[in-house]
Design brief:
The complex is a heterodimer of chains A (about 90) and B (about 180). By secondary structure, chain A is an all-alpha fold. In chain A, about 75% of the residues lie in helices and about 0% in strands. In chain B, about 75% of the residues lie in helices and about 0% in strands. The chains are: A mainly alpha (about 90), B mainly alpha (about 180).
Chain lengths: ~90, ~180
C-alpha cells in the first residue's frame, strides 16, 4: 500500500525519535539518601510544631477558662448573696 | 543483597528512570531532579510494594507520574509568573521558550527533534506516555500496557490516537511557520 506524502512525513519524523540515544547517568544515590534524611527531619520538625501548637492551644484555653470563671465570680451581683445573709439573720 | 533494598533498586533502574524523565522534560537538570525524586518516593513506598508486581514496572509508573507532576508544577509556576507580568504591563506576553537541552540528541537532529518535541509536549498526558514508552523507550506493546495498566489492545489504540493527534499538531505547527 502506498503511503500519502503527509503520512510518510509523519512516519519519517516519528522515526527521528529512534535516533535519540540513551544517556549514561552518574550515581546520585548519596543525594537521594540526603534528600530522604532531609525529608525525615522536615516531617519530625512538622510534628514537633504541631505538638507545640496543641500544647499552646490547651494552655491558652486553660488560661481563658480561668479568666472567665474569675470574671463571672466578680460580676455576680452582691444582692444574690443577700437571701443567704437574711436567712442567717433569721436563724439568729 | 536484598533485591528490594533502595541501593539495589537504584543500581538497577536509575539510568532507565533518568532517560525516561529526559524524554518528558528534555532537560538534563530537571531529569536529574526527577530521578532523585523518584527514588525518594520508592523509599517511601517500598514497604507497600513487597514485590507484588515487577519492580521495574512499578518504578516506571512512579517515574511517569513524577515526570508529569514536574511538568504540571513547571506549567503552574510559569503561569503564575506570566500572570504577574501581565498584571504589571497590562498586556499579554508570549510564552517563555522551553529550555531544550536533551543530551541524547545529536546536533544534526536537534532542530527537527525540537520541533517534534514541541508538538509531543502538547499531547494529552496518556498519549504522550504511550508515544514515549513505545517509540522512545522501545518497549513492546505488552510491556507498555503493563506499565500503563491497560490491555495490549487499549495500549495500541492509545498509541494510534497519539499518532493521529501528533499529525494534527505538526500540521498546525507547519501552517503557522
Amino acid at each position: 500500500m502506498n503511503k500519502t506524502p503527509s503520512k510518510l512525513d509523519m512516519e519519517e519524523e516519528l522515526n527521528l525519535l529512534e535516533h535519540i540515544h540513551r544517556v549514561p547517568h552518574g550515581n546520585s544515590l548519596q543525594q537521594v539518601l540526603k534528600r530522604i534524611e532531609q525529608r525525615k527531619e522536615r516531617v519530625s520538625g512538622a510534628w514537633l510544631l504541631v505538638a507545640a501548637s496543641l500544647l499552646l492551644l490547651l494552655l491558652s484555653a486553660d488560661v481563658l477558662a480561668a479568666r472567665m470563671l474569675k470574671k463571672a465570680a466578680l460580676q455576680q451581683p452582691l444582692n444574690s448573696l443577700l437571701p443567704q445573709t437574711e436567712m442567717l439573720l433569721y436563724d439568729e | 543483597m536484598d533485591p528490594f533494598s533502595l541501593e539495589e533498586l537504584y543500581r538497577l533502574h536509575h539510568e532507565r528512570v533518568y532517560n525516561l524523565a529526559l524524554h518528558y522534560v528534555q532537560n538534563a537538570e530537571d531529569a536529574e531532579e526527577i530521578t532523585q525524586d523518584v527514588f525518594v518516593k520508592v523509599h517511601e513506598k517500598l514497604h507497600a510494594f513487597r514485590g507484588l508486581s515487577e519492580a521495574g514496572t512499578w518504578i516506571y509508573r512512579i517515574a511517569i507520574n513524577a515526570s508529569l507532576d514536574h511538568l504540571r508544577a513547571r506549567k503552574a509556576g510559569k503561569r503564575a509568573f506570566w500572570l504577574r507580568v501581565v498584571s504589571f504591563h497590562g498586556k499579554s506576553a508570549e510564552q517563555e521558550p522551553q529550555n531544550f537541552n536533551h543530551p541524547g540528541i545529536n546536533l544534526e537532529h536537534k532542530e527537527a527533534l525540537q520541533g517534534l518535541f514541541r508538538a509531543i509536549n502538547k499531547l494529552p498526558d496518556r498519549q504522550r506516555s504511550a508515544l514515549i514508552l513505545l517509540k522512545m523507550e522501545g518497549l513492546s506493546t505488552e510491556e507498555a500496557a503493563r506499565i500503563m495498566e491497560l490491555t495490549p489492545k487499549a495500549m495500541e489504540s492509545l498509541f494510534q490516537r497519539a499518532k493521529a493527534q501528533l499529525k494534527i499538531l505538526l500540521h498546525q505547527a507547519k501552517e503557522h511557520e
